[in-house]
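queue> pop job 88
queue> type: inverse folding (structure -> sequence)
queue> payload:
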């Protein structure tokens, strides 16, 4: 049952209410439980907090024993960005695979099943889906997290995803407003800038967010990007013209506005997390996401105190903070009243979707393998959103079908020669992600195909480069289930 500590004043409660912090470990620390009693209304979960569905269920029950209406948020996109299956890889293909199939009913079903599993574990807010239009092929952080490069396609699948997720009782948080697709910089590392006219934004970036609003998305996440056509000074997360004038007034959105992680360098290295949080709430944000990198009580206290001080000095209107806190509580009420749904999706819908998403070139002359091959993974550096703790590729899935399959990871200028040496006489399966963004990867593949023309190529990123190899498979994502679907084709299963 919710209990607020006596003596906690309204201003302090509101300042705590708008925070969405993280924490270390697989059980809730004492400081977090104490803050829940003082007014903290949301908690963010990351891969480090999850060991199994059973453990996650116990953790969310522990949180609700302290505050029964707590919002438990997670960054579970399926595909490459998974927290439920952070150590094994996801059972669901990500957005780019669903966009490649282009069946909104399938997207709705996948999102529903993912939501059902989240709800079963006690999670009621998902920082997904990504509604970004991946219009820049060089984008280092969105890529396969996007449904595609066409605004109409992204819009219909964003709406389907929101509908499916929320029909399972889990609030969707559509991201990254006003659109992170046309960037060549990862906002985890620096502040990206999008130099396009406002009318171009309206015709491209904003279309999927309008669809999400039409589908009733309960939350929208802001992007740490500078869009001079909207605000030449401040990034979207800190911009009143973006959050209040555009999102609230022009687009008519009345749900919760959540910031992207405030410890990301686009904010932390420019404004700092305390000032950034004050500016975000003043601009129109309602909830401050922090905890991917900063996950301790000191961070909560710093942000709480910064908000309180800003109100007391007149920098932040008290009614704006109160309004933000009430929007958080309103979402908590929605999740508490959301009906429980059973059935409606096939447990294996993730695999079925991954199979449908495959793009196969050269199948007409290809003979499936019967002997265990050598899987050469041409491995780029993972972006922070994906993380490097989640395995990717298809070697484990291929080894299940063809026992004795061997594998190695290769990077850099000598990757091709090193892979040839390691493979020996075995048939080579080259697995890569986003060849078009990595010249060393193209050179490695040139080396492999020159020496071994029968090499099989599996592209698990955005398939921009021309297909080549004895067989070329585009999975449109690197989730475990995508690897299984590709392995079935290679082994003729």
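queue> result:
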């Amino acid at each position: 049952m919710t209990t607020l500590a006596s003596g906690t004043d309204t201003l302090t409660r509101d300042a705590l209410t708008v925070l969405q912090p993280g924490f270390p470990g697989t059980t809730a620390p004492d400081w977090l439980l104490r803050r829940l009693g003082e007014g903290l209304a949301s908690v963010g979960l990351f891969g480090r907090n999850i060991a199994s569905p059973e453990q996650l269920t116990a953790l969310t029950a522990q949180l609700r024993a302290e505050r029964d209406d707590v919002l438990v948020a997670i960054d579970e996109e399926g595909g490459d960005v998974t927290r439920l299956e952070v150590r094994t890889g996801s059972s669901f293909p990500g957005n780019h695979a669903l966009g490649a199939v282009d069946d909104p009913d399938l997207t709705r079903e996948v999102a529903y099943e993912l939501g059902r599993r989240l709800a079963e574990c006690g999670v009621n807010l998902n920082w997904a889906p990504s509604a970004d239009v991946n219009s820049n092929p060089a984008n280092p952080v969105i890529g396969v997290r996007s449904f595609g490069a066409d605004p109409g396609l992204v819009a219909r699948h964003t709406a389907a995803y929101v509908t499916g997720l929320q029909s399972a009782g889990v609030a969707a948080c559509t991201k990254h407003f006003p659109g992170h697709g046309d960037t060549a910089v990862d906002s985890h590392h620096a502040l990206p800038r999008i130099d396009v006219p406002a009318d171009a934004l309206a015709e491209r970036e904003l279309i999927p967010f309008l669809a999400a609003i039409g589908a009733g998305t309960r939350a929208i996440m802001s992007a740490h990007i500078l869009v001079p056509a909207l605000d030449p000074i401040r990034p979207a997360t800190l911009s009143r013209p973006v959050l209040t004038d555009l999102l609230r007034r022009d687009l008519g959105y009345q749900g919760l506005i959540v910031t992207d992680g405030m410890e990301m360098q686009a904010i932390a290295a420019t404004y700092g997390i305390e000032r950034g949080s004050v500016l975000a709430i003043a601009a129109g944000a309602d909830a401050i996401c922090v905890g991917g990198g900063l996950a301790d009580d000191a961070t909560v206290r710093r942000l709480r105190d910064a908000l309180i001080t800003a109100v007391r000095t007149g920098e932040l209107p008290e009614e704006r903070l109160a309004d933000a806190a009430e929007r958080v509580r309103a979402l908590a009420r929605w999740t508490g009243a959301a009906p429980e749904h059973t059935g409606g999706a096939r447990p294996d819908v993730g695999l079925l979707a991954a199979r449908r998403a495959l793009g196969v070139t050269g199948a007409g002359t290809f003979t499936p393998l019967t002997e265990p091959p050598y899987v050469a993974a041409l491995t780029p550096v993972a972006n922070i959103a994906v993380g490097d703790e989640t395995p990717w590729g298809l070697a484990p899935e291929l080894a299940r079908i063809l026992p004795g399959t061997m594998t190695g990871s290769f990077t850099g200028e000598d990757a091709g020669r090193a892979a040839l040496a390691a493979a020996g006489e075995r048939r080579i399966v080259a697995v890569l992600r986003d060849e078009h963004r990595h010249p060393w990867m193209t050179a490695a593949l040139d080396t492999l195909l020159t020496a071994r023309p029968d090499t099989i190529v599996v592209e698990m990123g955005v398939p921009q480069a021309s297909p080549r190899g004895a067989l070329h498979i585009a999975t449109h994502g690197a989730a475990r289930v995508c690897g299984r679907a590709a392995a079935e084709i290679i082994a003729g299963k």
